[in-house]
Amino acid sequence: MSIFTKKTKKTAETEPKKVKVAVARKSGDKDAVSMSELASVLVRPHVTEKAALLAEKNTYVFEVAPHSNKITIAKAVSALYGVKPIRVNIINLPRTRALIRGKMGVKAGVRKALVTLGKGDKIELI
């Protein structure tokens, strides 16, 4: 240990809160996922006309983090909204070149998740 490193003591305040999420795994302790991790998976709901039409069919669209996968998205939706997703589909939209005010620019790419819920389940986004 060098003279410049400082040992810090972990307390209950510095550790993120753990939540048990029901997932079929072999060991029980790996099911605990922190709320901050779940909140960082879902960036924002994707609100467009097409997303509103899909919401009538119990399919909701979210912009998600680039590192997320279907399992973490399903955990995040079930923990944050209290509903159980039946199916999760992911769409990667690449960044595209665009002419903006006479100059070439780039529109950012996005990763979207289409989350399908069962009958009777609803998410209030607004």
Brief characterization of the structure:
21% of the residues lie in helices and 34% in strands.
Low-pLDDT segments:
21-27
The CA-CA distance between the termini, in Å, is 52 Å
Estimated helix fraction: 10-25%
The CATH C-level class name = Alpha Beta
Mean pLDDT across residues:
82
Tell me about this structure.
With 126 residues, the chain is of the alpha+beta class. The chain has a single domain, classed as RRM (RNA recognition motif) domain (Alpha-Beta Plaits). Helix content is 21%, strand content 34%. It has three helices and eight strands. The strands form three sheets. It has a four-stranded antiparallel β-sheet with strand order 3-4-8-5. Strands 1-2 form a two-stranded antiparallel sheet. Strands 6-7 form a two-stranded antiparallel sheet. Strand 6 and strand 7 form a beta hairpin. Helix 1 packs across helix 3. About 6% of the residues have low confidence.
List keywords for this structure.
34% strand; single chain; two-stranded antiparallel ribbon; alpha+beta
Indicate the topology.
Elements: E1 18-20, E2 32-34, H1 35-41, E3 42-45, H2 49-55, E4 59-64, H3 70-81, E5 85-93, E6 96-100, E7 103-107, E8 110-117
Helix pairs in contact: 1-3
